[in-house]
Fold each of these.
Amino acid sequence: MRRTLALARRELAAFLNFPAGGLVLAAAPLFSAAWFLFVDGFFARDQASLRGFFAVSSLALSVLAPALTMRSWAEERRQGTAELLLSMPFSTAELVAGKFLAAWLLLAVSVAISLPVPLSLGAFGDFDSGVIVAEYAGLLLFALAAAAIGQLASARSESQTAAFLASLLALLALTLLGRANRLVELPAALAALVSWVSLGAHLEPFSRGVVEFGDASWFALVAAFFLWLSAGSVEGRRRERSARGSPRRKEARLASFLSLAVFAATALLVSLVPLRADLSAGKAHTLSSYTRKLVSTLDEPLRVTYWRSRILADRHPGPDMIESLLRTLESASRGRVRLRVVDSSKDPAAAEALGIEPRQMETVERDEQRLAIVHSGIVLEYLDASRVLPAVLSTETLEYELARATLSLARDREPVAALLVGDSGRSLETDFQGLSAALGRSGYVTREQAPGSPVDSDASVLFVLGVDALDAAAAAAIDAYLRSGGAVFMAARGVVVDPADDLAATAIGSNAALDLLAAYGVTIRRELALDERALSVPYQTAGDTGAAEIRYVEYPHWIAVDGRYVSATHPLTGRFGGLDLFWPSPVELEPREGFPATTLVTTSPRGWRQRTALYTGIEENDYWAREASATRGRQTLAVALEGFPPDAGYGDASAPGAAARLVVVSGSDSFTDLAGYTGSLFNAEFAATAADWLSGEEGLLSIKVRAARAARLDRVGEPALESRLKTVSYLAIFALAPGIALAVPMIRNTRRRSREGRTGGRA
Amino acid sequence: MIDVAGFSKRYGDFEAVRDVSFIVEPGRITGLLGPNGAGKTSVLRAIAGYHEPDSGRILVSGIDVVEDPRGAKAIIGYLPENAPLWPDPTPEEYLRFVAEARGLDKRAPAIARVAAACGLEGVMRVPIGKLSKGFRQRVALAQALVHDPEVLVLDEPTSGLDPNQALEIRELVASLGRSRTVLLSTHILNEAEALCSNALIMAGGRIVARGGAEEMARNLKGEERLELVVKGIDPDRARDLAAPLAPRLSCVLAVAAGDGVSMTFSAALDSGSDASELVFDWALGNGLKILELRRERLSLEEIFVSLTRGEAGS
């Protein structure tokens, strides 16, 4: 060990004695960062994910590692210095390990030079730090394999150039091999072998934040194997070129084959060890305890059939991930779940008869472009009932969908969401298609609820979509349902804005539903809430030439709710995706005894109110701002209440039986199909998530809110600050870290030179 | 002690060393002499553990270098030919690495000792790549001494050095040889004579002669020749005139060259420098005009070749 460290130190010193060493180390992260920021367009893509950066980084390491290791033996032999090294009392293992350790440490330093990338870009969005940690771990493990492969190439090559090329080719091939499966159709066994051998395929789970023991040890095993071969090669040269076919050569060859077999067997065994760590936020890629409990307490076996086309599984990573999640489910269920994976291409008609959705996929076969019909869907059967997930291509929401389907099978009923349209001039068919679809995706059966008639007792949740047209009878029905332990989602507004009438705003007068809310302690003011954190709207004006032109202008009546201004503790907003609120009114909260309330959503501190002058026209900035200074501050926009509603004066004053839940969101237009205008599914997803909380499915909710989502780069908001921060990031990434990397060897060499000068002795 | 028995080494089809056996006694300096390509380096490398013998056995102080290479390396100090050192470290850094690699506990005093012994004090902080050949050779020697080894194996320790540098190194080696087992290879006869108490002569991968160094040097030096070109005489007459010089000098050749005669004398054993004086006086005494007088020592290669022939014949 001591000798190994001595050699590693010496190798590091040799690298540092080379003044441009820092440049070599900085080149890989600089290239990766430049590619990620400027070619890949990080800011343009507007996603808080560094996946692309790490993908390029592994390729950059595949170039750097050969450059760092090419000298290790080839140059040592060329200079003749190997002779001295080998005459010192090192064992071959110590020599190989010392050189390997030094190369790996240099690669690790190069990886560390890229740290400003996550550190500075992290200011722009809500990145999943667990995933980033896993990706770094993946790169460091990858570096193990790369350093070992590089050393073997150097040990086997006559010149450093040959060593560089050999290890570069080997590394690129091993890294990119896994992608071959997507390009050409290979026999199944070969395809499996290819992805098993590929370093890139073993790196993939790290990019999701999942560190599997099998993948991590794969890199370690590959490193160990190549180091073993390197040691054999160094040792072989010591015995130097015995004539071909000599017993020693045969022995060595036999030993190589044996070690390959041992390596393969070990790798195979290790891959079966079910150890894994899920570092992603909320363990998004691990079955939640809720799901585990759900499947392990089923009374009867749940038959799960995964129908997937082989051609899809060969070319797309999705089916493998889906299958792996299903296998995890199977093993967590203690025998209750019986999984079958069926190749749908053998019997596509049967799959489609079960409700699996056919999809088209382009394939290239023998240079011929073809369209293939592929399937990837899951059928769950329990007793004599079944549920179908017709098209599943990723695991992002799969656990939620499986749990939801399992739950409805086990209970033998599907949750019902009753939808009550309360705004005048709106209907379920024309205005709430997006909302209905989102509820359907979450497993709810939607049913229209007529205002004023009693709410069916089997409804899990009542959506009151707007309030202006609701009368006392309707309010009484809502109150009765709620007091019986019901769950209500109420989208309300205090001011009606009519897009058809030049955005004219009218405060709502006396209203039974709003009065009901007020009785619960939730007052929807007849005012408008505005925020500088706003959506933009297209606005048609006459341009300079007189022709009509469309400009995007910020419209503070449409608030883009910021993740920083939602309740961090409430399960509904604990992991918040986003919410776009249209013409919301400020909400005032005076909680009643027994019916406590939580503020879910507010504006930013740069929010304000329009109390009297309700101007809502585009670009009427001066009018909007009239009351800004008087009302500036965070305005409440949504609240959640849980408990026993107080008597609202609708009779039945007897004590309510069960606890009720109520979510009130201001801005009822936000849940109409107008929300589709922004292209985001935030609002519909928020409503579906609220349905889960309201109907008491906290377990399901816990799966859903932790599911990975692509967060936006919305942390900063203010353009001036954002551009300053960008400059700081670029400086940190492209100047600071590489600068330090360059400076260290340069300072070292300057100091060495000055010491050399002081001793004066020159021969 | 170094005990080599039946050592052979091939490189592909080339048989570098054939069945070599010898013993190097402790407290002596043994010279391994021979022309380039004789197999000296192959023998030394095998002893130092840089490569393994194809057959045969090498014991260093009783340790088999194949079975326990690390044990053997630990007690050997090895100086390879041409001092192959990394150019970037300073002697100080390099010797520190060697001391660490050799597992020394008290590194600083050991480094100071060898730096003083090898005269490196003034250059300890100058990168090795900037040092002269002589200093590089000293650094290489210092690394071989840093662990105070029982056995020293030195491959051409003075090759490429100027006479003064070579002298210094020789003195150093001579002082080291008093308490250690030293095996050094050289192709400089004077060096072997001056330093070694024993000598082994290799040629064509075999040992062709062995014995006391002085005696062997004397034998080898018997091959000194003198070339003389004189005017005013014919070859036959010159030969007759030269006859009385025997047995110390014999004229082996006399041929006409221009208007004179070119004569080659072979000097007998131990004629030393006075052989040329003798020839000069002889020419003068016979009234011959000397155009040229050149002393020509047979190259070691020629001597070795002749020895090999003798060996093959016998």
Amino acid sequence: MPPPAALAAVPAPPRSRRGSHTLAVLALAALLPVAVILAVGLGSAAIPPADTAGYLWAALTGGTIDADEVTRYQIVWRIRMPRVLLAALVGAGLAAAGVAMQALVRNPLADPYILGVSSGASVGAVAAGLLGAGGLAVTGGAFAGAVGAAVVVYLAAAGLAPLRLVLTGVAISVGLQAVMSVLVYLLPDGETTGTILFWTMGGFGAASWDVIPVVAVVVLGGIGVLHRLRRDLDVLSLGDETAGALGVDARGLRLGLFALTALMTGAMVAVSGAIGFAGLVIPHVARLLTGAVHARVLVLAPLLGAAFMVLVDVAARTLAAPRELPAGVITALVGVPLFLALMHRRR
Amino acid sequence: MDLRLDGISVGAIVRDLSLRVPAGRIVGLVGPNGSGKTTALRCVYRALRPTTGTVWLGDADLTAMRPRRSARHVAALTQESHDIPDFTVAELVALGRAPHGDGRSTKDGEACAAAMAEADVAHLADRHVNGLSGGERQRVLLARALAQEPEVLVLDEPTNHLDLRHQIALLSLLRNGKRTVLLVLHDLNLAAAACDRVAVLRDGALVASGTPAEVLTTELVREVFGVEAVVVAHPVTGGPHLLYSLEGDPS
């Protein structure tokens, strides 16, 4: 029986994805500042949200603080604020770099560390430490190691064919981890555990205002560049041949994405270690909510990543207080089950 | 505008191939596996740069054009088959507008709607691409190519995965359109029915070209494909139609 005419004439259902996308973006944009204020207030010395907001307002507008509140102000502005901001930036950046990497190697199970960037960073940092460097020089060593590892992977893969790139990245990572293990033997005993934990699991304990501007420029700039490439990223996902027929130079785009993700991920790993799973899982959660179109994924994923990482850092600071858990422990505890669930969804 | 392959060679895969597709006509490339059909097509849609020779569209050299510009003239339906992200049909078809700008103008919307109507996928607009049947998916990919509003359409075995009805529908769509079409077909009878001219490739070289009746003869099919065929006239259209018998059958 043919459907009644009235039913057949019903227009296509409204684009529910677009609606839920706008809703999710607005909700996250409103939630993020609230999460930041709450996160800044939480810690070994809890500070009420209203006071926190007041201190932040005073810091931003140059207001005055009572003499007896200076210590609490210092905690909020000098210690916790850069830490929470760094968590938000790294969360956003890892999510965006994950989106880019998954497009680059055309593999939904790729993450930003697949190019060996994280193992390269740990080798660079430990090597710098052994050479007597400290503070920002170690960060610089980590960044150099991260980008160096990406360059080695690029050269060893002899091109940017997706599967070769993934396999080469995995192989180089294993090699670099071996180098890291050797270097760690050379470290003074007291530093071993902390060093390994920081570089393999990550954390925001080393945050300071010194690194925020650089990380902000690299991460936000990188997200901006990815936004400009959003349509090309969609087209690339159809395959290199089809992309070419649509006027997109797949090779050139891949090379650009490779350089961009290496730079972004290198900068993030250098300041916060290798925090796993966020760069893998957040892009998927974003796609589940909003579909695969990069114009939307590249808005939602960084917002989700930022909010998620701020919460992760709060958990890292408070769950085992006064001790601190590595951020990667929390993301793994949340991320591994999510990852398995996502894999099953894909059949 | 005419599409002309002018003495193109790609290594030893395609050798000095010259071929003209008159404006608005359909030319079918046929030949055994590995005869260079796909490679020749790839030169037209810019996936490959011929070692020597040129592809002309009218008097413009396609091989020298910026890819984004040539993509406004030439669209391709390739054989690529891998996972596509979870786009909806409308989102995927809209990617066909990529060479034309940001894809948000009224004209973009109209081109997509027309392409989806022509490929008979308008009713699938909000479906997810990964939930479609192979045939539906192929028509969606065709709609994506049509949304490019190309003068030239290049198709690599477009009837793969399609059931009989949709094979006929797709070739009828091409016949009813005004585009210049170069396509690879395996099925010689479909080629005879759909194409104005047929070009036969063997080992990368053109061995015959002409109307289906001129080209698709018992001798040629034996020589090029190694198959015995009887050519009869189609009782309705009068075009050539090939009948095959399995090897060893009594004749």
